[in-house]
Amino acid sequence: MDVIESLKLNIQKAFSALGVEVSLNDIVIEHSKDAAHGDYATNAAMKNCRLLKMPPVAVANALIEKLDRNGIEKIEIAGPGFINFFMKNDSLQPIVKKIINEGESFGKGEKKNFKVNVEFVSANPTGDLHVGHARGAAIGDSICRIMEFAGYDITREYYINDAGNQIDHLAESILARYKELLGIPAEVPEDGYHGQDIIYVAQKIIDEVGDSLLNQDNPIPFLKERGMELELDKIREDLKTFRVHFDVFSSELKVRSNGAVEKELEFLKDHIYEEDTAKVLRTTDFLDDKDRVIVKSNGDYTYFMPDIVYHVNKMSRGFDQLVDVLGADHHGYINRMKSALMMHGYKAEALEIELIQMVRFIKDGVEMKASKRTGDSITLREICEDVGVDAMRYFFAMRAASAHMDFDMNLALEQSSNNPVYYAQYAHARLCSILEQGKDIALDKEASKLEKPSEMALLKFLANFPNVVNDAAKERAPYKITNYIHELAGLIHEFYTECRVIDRDNIDVSSSRLALCKASEQVMKNALNLIGVNAPEHM
RNA sequence: GCGCCCGUAACUCAGCUGGAUAGAGUACCUUCCUCCUAAGAAGGGAGUCGGACGUUCGAAUCGCCUCGGGCGCGCCA
Length: 539
Known about the structure:
Blueprint: H1 3-17, E1 29-31, E2 40-42, H2 44-47, H3 49-52, H4 56-66, E3 72-78, E4 82-87, H5 89-92, H6 95-102, E5 115-119, H7 131-150, E6 153-160, H8 166-181, H9 196-209, H10 220-241, E7 248-251, H11 252-256, H12 260-267, E8 272-275, E9 278-281, E10 292-295, H13 304-316, E11 321-327, H14 334-342, E12 351-356, E13 359-363, E14 366-368, H15 380-387, H16 389-397, E15 405-408, H17 409-414, H18 420-437, H19 453-463, H20 465-475, H21 478-498, H22 507-530
Parallel strand pairs: 5-6, 5-11, 6-7, 11-12, 13-15
Antiparallel strand pairs: 1-2, 2-4, 3-4, 8-9, 9-10, 13-14
Helix pairs in contact: 1-4, 6-22, 7-16, 7-20, 8-9, 8-10, 9-10, 15-16, 18-21, 18-22, 19-21, 19-22, 20-21, 21-22
The structure holds one RNA strand.
């Protein structure tokens, strides 16, 4: 059991001895920010003073009379009623052994037997992934890594909107480029795609089938299918570079096949009314503030209709929860989709939507507008080449998804050494270097010689990693991992500065410190992996 | 007009299930490499936590109001 858990139990028992039962969840142990406040502190006395009908400080005094002093050096009452714990060194040292033994599993949560489907990116296969997709990809993938590590059963899913008319526009655009490349005058339609990648696709098709399409009455169906495949291939390639993989690619066409939409309409009929000749879904019966048209007067479906089918399809595959990672401009969509699922008897919580706020890319003080249509968008590929995948992923994982963010291109492009990702990676590389040089010295897994402030601070922080993982998973908040990484790097650098690790005249201490290096290196690597950033051994 | 997100140091942002002196990076100013990676460390200046009221032992954090910025509110996708 870790130190924090045992402190909680200790306090709970003390409350019992005073005749009050307090839930473990109501006892909060926090790391003291200031060393003068000890190693750990609790506000339990203040929080529960009403139960005992005594002033906070009196409760604190009564509590500490009842506390078990095992492993505790000193207990103090401070301020308005905080109880500060000063731990004995040997109650903090055992974490080193635990980390080294568990290795890359340290921090993993228990299997939760809870299946979650996370859908993210889902960019239309009509052009290269651009930089606007990057944040969603980085955060979506990090959420998956963190939740998986915390013990959830995760399926990563990409939804391909291959049924809409954007695929027609794609085919027409490719056809125009195809003709151009063959020397036949043609123009990309106004509402088509004007990006460079379309020319690439057209060339690829020429390589495959030559000019044979010119003789066909209607080459559009072929171009739709082949063009989409080629676009998807590029997207998969870019995602791979970005260290993102998907378990499932779902096709809208497939989801809609076999009359699935008609069946869904039939299922929903009690919630549908007609207005003129359109069909409207009464989502206001649930969470929405407005009813939604699902079948237009002309008989076409609105985009909402197949999306309902898709979400019901996902639920029917046995997931306990769906998570959609969407751009913040989709927030109006949350309640209508939840409402539709509730018509199927699912709880509102069955679907959670993670909104990703817009990123502004600033270069030379001017915002760069990324547009797929105009062709002058910045692609994910080129920015990864310039900035590097590590920096991109770290940067995006650094901020809460809900926060608007500015991406300073100049900083990212010109001064990569200023990027905080290097601070963390450098800490890792330093440790690796020391471990390499001290590899002939046996590690003292008991870490019995650790006592310096920077050593003890590091120990406490390492021990907290599993809690941080759990919290980040529960909140679907990768930035909490990134914050942890940053702070851990700081503690490692402080330790490095204060404590000379390899000292051939003092092998005992070296041995303990090397074990601490190993444990710190392991936790740093585990944490970086959760946000998809490499932990280099040399820099 | 209605709804969602945001407003914290010069800049970019943490901190928000209420807790001790509000933090980090960048930028600026001092120090520190005969010694395991100076892509580092130590220290300094920098704040009416947008504003007002309320809830209470205690509010950056919760509630209401208000101001400012972004985004939604289609028989578009």
